[in-house]
Amino acid sequence: MTGDEVTSLADARVRVLARIAGAAARTGRDPALVTLVAVSKTVPAERVRAAVEAGLEVLGENRVQEAAAKIPAVGSGTWHLIGPLQANKARRALELFDVIESVDSIELAERLDRIALEMDRPGVPVLLQVNVDRDPAKAGFDPATLDEAMNRLEALRSLDVRGLMTIGRLAPDPEAARPTFRALQELSARLRAGWPRLGPELSMGMSDDFEAAIEEGATIVRVGRLLFGERPRAA
Ligand SMILES: *Cc1c(COP(=O)(O)O)cnc(C)c1O
């Protein structure tokens, strides 16, 4: 890790935080209530260490296998899993990650709960990923199934269901994603009225659309390219 690397990541962090503050101010929200998750997928461990040094202490990874090598090599930080989790990697994910944002089925939630109980790890923070637009290319709960899912989640005592997560429409115009973000916020309000155990977190917004997401109520934004630069293709 070089001093230059830390400095340039610290600068990128300050720029993103300023934009977070601007978006929060536009809607009268406290920017301190928005968590910046630095998405470090494909970024080598050495550079992620520089990022932590630069103040980017909350990191996001989308693959358990990549994270299994990287997280111990970085050695610090708070880690969010933001990508699809296969059943056979659930235990490894619980060993590695502090927060699992991508719980996309009741079966996965039940499995995580069972393993967390075995591991004596109560209160695992999770988010439910919602496929707001019912896009066949995306994972997540169909919004229409969430009421039933909430009933079954009630029984899972080892999970702390902190809120909802979604991915907006991937389009160059950030406004394209706004209706998805608004719909997730409305869904959260409606579900929380009936199930107070569902927490208020809303993880939504990436490099191209995090400001719109904050204006629509995001409490967690997941930003990769704006901090680390473009990724190699197909990653
Ligand atoms: C890669 C990824 C991000 C970050 O995307 P950027 O466009 O690099 O900001 C956010 N969320 C998820 C689920 C991702 O897979």
Describe the protein.
By secondary structure, the protein is of the alpha/beta class. It has one domain: Alanine racemase (TIM Barrel, Alpha-Beta Barrel). It is built from nine helices and eight strands. It has helices at residues 3-26, 45-53, 64-74, 90-96, 106-118, 146-153, 178-194, 210-215, 225-228, and strands at 35-39, 58-61, 78-81, 99-103, 124-129, 159-165, 201-203, 220-223. An eight-stranded parallel β-sheet has the order 7-6-5-4-3-2-1-8. The longest helix is centred in the N-terminal third of the chain and has 24 residues, at 3-26. The protein starts with a helix and ends in a 7-residue tail after the last helix. Bound molecules: pyridoxal-5'-phosphate (PLP). Pyridoxal-5'-phosphate (PLP) binds at residues 39, 41, 62, 82-83, 167, 206-207, 222-225. The site of pyridoxal-5'-phosphate has 12 residues, from strand 8.
